[in-house]
Amino acid sequence: MAEDEQDQEGPREARSASTPRHSRRLSDKILIAFHHACDQGDFEVAEQLLRILEMMLTRRPVSPDTNRRRNMESLVAAHERLWHLRHPELREGQ
Fold first, then answer.
1. Residue 15 lies in a domain
2. 1 located within any domain
């Protein structure tokens, strides 16, 4: 039975080699990790991830990025989220 499983894995591995290995950009994954850190209350990690993301988005791009404005808006929103999480006593409307 183990041999059958190995035989079945071969074609699957060959297929995965021809398909793109990563479906998201690294900056998207870092933003997701940032939000995950915020959700878990680990603000130090969230801040470090935000710094890395900012460095990636503000350095000179190798190729023109059509999503630059959206990326910068996401970066600003992430900064705002972290600030609000760190300053819950200053919520709007209070």
1. no
2. no
Domain for residue 80, yes or no?
Answer: yes
3 state DSSP class of 40? coil
Contacts of 75 (CB under 8 A, 6+ apart): 50, 53, 54, 57
- Total domains in the chain come to 1
Tell me: pLDDT of 52 over 80: yes
DSSP string, 24-72: S-HHHHHHHHHHHHHHTT-HHHHHHHHHHHHHHHHSPPSS--TTHHHHH
pLDDT in tens, 9-23: 444 444 455 666 768
